[in-house]
Amino acid sequence: MQIRTTKEASELINLIETLKDSIYKADLVSFNKILQNNAILTTYLRESEISSGNKEAIASYLDRTKEEILKMSRIKLTMAINPDSALLDKMFSWFKDAAGKELLMDISINPGILGGLLVTYKGLYRDFSLKSRLDNYFKRFSTVYDLLRS
Length: 150
Hints:
This protein is an alpha+beta fold. The chain has helices at residues 6-25, 28-36, 39-47, 55-71, 85-99, 130-139, 144-149; strands at 73-79, 103-109, 116-121, 124-129.
């Protein structure tokens, strides 16, 4: 399952809870209408070969899917821009290759970092922002005169 961000995970968990509530409260037609609005769950239910008429198997599958999502490791990222889907795909793939597993990206936006990333993972923090690089560069100069003479 390719869930890239904590926002996507939260939306999917909410859908799973809605579906679980509707399994026993609604008829199968209503349930299938709700399910059709989410391609990820529809695809995985088909691939798992669970019959749409088997309410217990569907409920069990939804529970397992929710647990898998909740168990996923997270990486906190602060970016200067709101990433589009193509950038999210590249980042997800890169972090997956680097970590050796899928990581949910918890993304926040802070234009003040100018570019790059602030990364927190397993209690470790790294600042790869353009702001910190510029700050470090300009610390070398005590006056504008020093800057102009370099």
